[in-house]
Amino acid sequence: MQRETRDAPVMDVNYFTEEWNADPYPGLEAIRAAGPIVFNPRTNDWMVPGYQLGARVQANARRYKAVEELGQLFGGITMEFVDTPLHHELRGVWAKDFQRETLQRQRAMIDEIVATRVGPFVERVRDGETVEAIANMTRGIPVLVIARMLGVSGDDVQRFSDWSDRMGGIVAGMVDESPAGAEMLQRGLDATAELNAFIAEQIAARRARPTGDLISAMTHSDVARRVSEQDLVASNTQLVFAGNETTAKLMASTLVALARHPDQRHAIVADRSLVPQAIEEVHRWETVAQVGYRDVHNGDAEIDGIVVPDGSRVCILLGACNRDAARWEDPSRFDIFREPQSHLGFGFGMHSCLGLNLARLELEVWLNQILDAIPECELAEDVSYGTNFVLRAPLSVHIRNP
Questions:
Q1: In this structure, are strands 398-400 and 38-40 parallel, antiparallel, or unpaired?
Q2: For the whole prediction, is pTM greater than 0.90?
Q3: What are the tens digits of pLDDT across the range 80-132?
Q4: Comparing C-alpha atoms, which of 341, 386, 295, 350 is closest to residue 52?
Q5: Which of 284, 356, 277, 280 minimizes the C-alpha distance to 322?
Q6: Cβ(318)–Cβ(287) under 8 Å?
Q7: N or C: which end of the chain has fewer CB within 10 A?
């Protein structure tokens, strides 16, 4: 018997304005109220605002595939934008390096790098200055760590930061059809080309003389012999970007959240066992990667009686999924004491973030050092989030002693 289907709810949503990005959550709740899947004619995709369906779409690669054209923005195939079996082959090259147990051997290196960035920052704050935290502290930490793991000279770290900052606008620029979006996209593509050229030189050097770093591991892997040179370069380029961009933004969001909730910051200062769950709560409450994309394939998909045609793009609204009242009580409340539950901030299924254990370790080390040094701090200025909804985070965070 043929099942009855119904028309999809439609909402014209423009994510890429300062007004929306300053506080997207009322708008995301309006999308949720419209239905479990809502068509957005502005971006020509199907929005999913609920945790259960968002996780299901991300986990079901047979019906919802990775968006390979996004991977081509890195200049070739990368693990984030291709499905199994190639996804698992590429991911497998570095998987052990990002396991929790393996990363503990990197802890001393991470402690050292964090201290070099936190020390000068907190000294200025203690001296009574108002100091911008992103440029003067958080931005450099994850990029220095991933550069060390890649075997890249410290002299190149500033270029890594610049490339990553510009590349962070690529996906948003693709979706945002305004002149500002086009400019963001072009800046990102230019940065990718520059980073690809740099990575190609690094790969050539490691072919001639293998080392023990991540670039060398991929260069001399079995899968490297079966993919193109462009794909090999793109995989390393994506690791540079993914290995620092989200973590740096999450550090900035953590500063803002704890400055605005001093009672919870005081609780963490008193009990450092709360640090891991505080980090997870920030990531749930202020999700950095607000969207994830999948393409329907292997025929039309039917979701809650709505037919989504084969080839359609599904936009999983990860920030909305992470504030779903069906999963979290009072989800718009920031609460580090809530019962821990998995969120979608690091993705779900085969495409969950390879570096999630590294990100958590960096954040744990950094937050402990900050709370040791300046347990009392406050925001000196209002926080702006710009227009990049795809990777949403404060543009600047000015900190001072109260």
A1: unpaired
A2: yes
A3: 889 989 999 999 999 999 999 999 999 999 999 999 999 999 999 999 999 99
A4: 341
A5: 284
A6: yes
A7: N
